[in-house]
Design a protein that fits this description.
The complex is a heterodimer of chains A (236) and B (328).
Chain A lengths: L1 E4 L4 E5 L8 H18 L4 E7 L2 E6 L1 H6 L7 H19 L8 E7 L8 H8 L3 H10 L2 E7 L4 E5 L14 E4 L3 E5 L2 E4 L4 E3 L2 E5 L20 E7 L1 H7 L1
Parallel strand pairs in A: 5-13
Antiparallel strand pairs in A: 1-2, 2-4, 3-4, 6-7, 6-13, 7-10, 8-11, 9-10, 9-12
Helix pairs in contact in A: 1-3
Chain B lengths: L1 E7 L2 E5 L19 H11 L7 E5 L3 E5 L3 E9 L2 E3 L2 E2 L6 E3 L4 E4 L4 E9 L32 E4 L5 H9 L12 H4 L7 E6 L3 H4 L1 H9 L2 E3 L7 E5 L14 E2 L4 E3 L7 E3 L6 E2 L3 E5 L4 H4 L7 E6 L2 H21 L6
The chains are: A alpha+beta (236), B alpha+beta (328).
Chain lengths: 236, 328
């Protein structure tokens, strides 16, 4: 484990060297660390942000000082508390929280899936096979970030891996499902983007009027269900 | 009670001190790019320091008030008026019913924060009244202010009412905060940074050049970040990283070798190596950078960054206590 400053109000905790080698295990490690750090209630900590192999811990140095951190060495004070909070993990071992599977309806019509043909061509299969593979797989949220809570999902069938588009689109519509490299993801708000778009969900996954605003968080299990254009229109 | 933006200006948005606790959902911290300026302006008009005000970019704003209000602004070198009277930054002033506040384009810097007594009464979305322009929520329906638009204000608090009585004749208060709080734009500023989480990966040559060289602000800069032109910083390792958290102040080094200094509306995660982090107390100066400005960087220790932050907080608290007598 490695703890590095991210400016004067955050630290990055690196929990593993590599993600690809053991995504499930690394994800559990990250989620467990997030849980332990949250339970430790380190004075001054504002929030925790997990991503792949890391957990970022954002803190208010002023509050940490008021809680006894030496003003000349807040970082060491925080690092010590982080290491204490995480040392307990190693002795008890990670305990996975069982999460239910969130099902996301997707209309894979060519009208929504601008790049479906390109993905199919690259994979050497027809459109239907791409849809069957994409909607047949089990995914896990590896990270949520970028803009408006974009969830990065691991578990994409290897055949469907497609590099990002050379020129990103200026605007990708809300609800678009994309493939970027070995991952798949959902554009929860209208934004620029370079992923290959294969369909669209009528489900509103990000709603700032709700708290929490996002349906998905790191660690969640996800499946896609293929729906007809008719069903899409009814749900939208 | 409502005020009217007769002219909304180049880019004016409702901002307070921003959001927290939502990074795991990909929500940026947002808020005033110079939270200190907004805090000070709020204290000057008798508001709670976290009240929502207006972030004004490149001026061009004209507001008409429908009732008596105390206003104060802090930020770049702008010419502002209340009615026909000049209003320097940092001085609280009385705007009478029907009177206008106007602010022209700046000589130095690009942003100003205007506090209005009572504060702007827009709905709280995810814990803040700030406008998230990129995700389009908060503030005035997630977008900039428009010409002719009315915006609601809370009632004047008791403290502001006292000040209104005091300023009936003088109109503009003679007192103001320290000059560098109310007037934050600098020519060719030197920004302090602490070493970034990936400074080693970027290599000593890149870090050394970052310390030594001058950079130009690219026109392609906004509330998400300041893009820096100038010498190309060569990375010793060209591989991008697995995405991990970034923060306002983070200086990313993309393969182009042109650093990007992230500001409050930045994405929550990024895959470019993090060469440096501009310290929190210097972000207000970064918030004034505009196209073609020259900027340089100097390294400080993390302990120095924390000391500067603590000192800033103590000074602000002391200032808050010091102006109490004006509201009694």
């Amino acid at each position: 484990m490695d703890v590095t400053p991210l400016g004067d109000s955050a630290v990055l905790i690196h929990l593993a060297e590599n993600f690809e080698d053991a995504p499930e295990l690394t994800l559990e490690q990250v989620l467990t660390a997030q849980r332990c750090l949250s339970a430790a209630k380190i004075p001054g900590v504002i929030e925790l942000a997990p991503a792949y192999t890391t957990v970022a811990l954002f803190y208010d140095p002023i509050i940490s000082i008021k809680a006894g951190a030496p003003s000349g060495n807040i970082f060491d004070w925080i690092e010590e508390r982080i290491r204490n909070a995480l040392s307990k993990v190693e002795t008890t071992g990670p305990e996975s929280v069982e999460r239910s599977v969130i099902e996301i309806p997707v209309c894979y019509d060519i009208e929504f899936g601008f790049d479906l043909d390109e993905v199919a061509q690259r994979a050497g299969m027809d459109r239907k096979k791409v849809v069957d593979l994409h909607s047949g797989a089990k995914y896990r949220v590896h990270c949520v970030g970028f803009i408006g809570g974009f969830p990065f999902l691991g578990g994409l069938p290897r055949e469907l891996a497609t590099p990002r588009r050379e020129t990103p689109r200026k605007e990708v519509p809300t609800g678009s499902i994309g493939i970027g490299g070995k991952q798949t993801g959902i554009y929860q708000i209208k934004s620029p983007g370079g992923w290959n778009i294969i369909g669209r969900t009528p489900l509103r996954l990000f709603d700032p009027q709700k708290n929490p605003p996002g349906l998905l968080r790191t660690g969640d299990r996800v499946r896609f269900r293929s729906i007809s254009r008719h069903e899409f229109d009814r749900a939208a | 009670m409502k005020a009217t933006a007769i002219r909304a200006g180049f880019l004016t948005s409702v901002q307070d001190l921003g959001r927290s606790g939502l990074r795991e959902f990909g929500v940026s911290s947002g808020g005033a790019l110079d939270p200190h300026a907004l805090r000070v302006a709020n204290l000057l008009v008798g508001n709670d320091e976290s009240a929502a005000g207006l972030e004004i970019t490149f001026g061009g704003l004209r507001i008409r008030f429908a009732d008596e209000r105390i206003v104060a602004w802090c930020g770049g070198s702008f010419d502002a008026r209340i009615g026909s009277t000049n209003l320097l930054s940092g001085h609280p002033a009385l705007a009478q019913s029907g009177e206008e506040f106007s602010i022209e384009s700046p000589a130095i810097g690009c942003r100003a924060w205007l506090a209005i007594s009572g504060g702007i009464d827009v709905a709280i979305v995810l814990g803040s009244r700030s406008t998230d322009l990129k995700a389009a929520f908060g503030g005035m329906n997630g977008r900039p202010m428009r010409d002719g638009e009315q915006f609601p204000l809370f009632e004047n608090p008791a403290r502001s009412r006292t000040l209104i009585e005091r300023l009936r004749d003088k109109r503009v208060a003679p007192w103001k905060p320290p000059h560098d709080w109310s007037s934050t734009a600098r020519r060719e500023p030197l920004l302090r940074f602490v070493r970034g989480a990936d400074a080693k990966r970027c290599g000593p040559a890149a870090l050394e050049a970052f310390r030594r060289e001058s950079f130009f602000v690219s026109p392609d800069s906004d509330r998400m970040g300041v893009r820096l032109d100038g010498p190309r910083l060569e990375r010793s390792d060209q591989a991008d990283l697995l995405s991990e958290a970034v923060a306002p102040g983070t200086v990313q080094l993309p393969p182009s070798g042109k650093p990007i200094l992230l500001l409050n509306d930045c994405q929550t995660i990024g895959g470019y190596p993090k060469l440096a982090n501009v310290i929190t107390v210097d972000l207000p100066i970064a918030a004034q950078l505009r196209a073609a400005d020259v900027v340089r960087f100097t390294e400080v220790s993390l302990a120095d960054a924390h000391r500067a932050l603590l000192e800033r907080q103590r000074d602000l608290e002391q200032f808050g206590r010091g102006i109490e007598s004006q509201f009694r």
